[in-house]
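Sequence decides. Consider this:

===
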Amino acid sequence: MMNPMRDPSPWRLHADLAWGRLLAAVATLDEEATLRPDVHLFLGDRYWWLARRHHLRGRQRRAERLLRKARFHLRLGGGPEPPPFAAAVMPIPRPAFFTSAIGPAA
């Protein structure tokens, strides 16, 4: 199982998008068929991760194009906007505080 805190590998992202687009094309062969919202959410997530990778490597134009695709799919899936490409700042937590909870013997 993939760790949700780690970035997926670029091979994994491209493979997921290729399979997703192929399955979406097959699913919409019927002119009246539409994709389910969860398919759009999946594609939006994959495009967002790819856009993030390109952004971190300085490829801004490609990152913006992929981010537009991600927003398109996330909007169709009913999901939230993707998070911004910025590091989140959180305070360093204080160390754990342990105390003895044993009372005197009665």
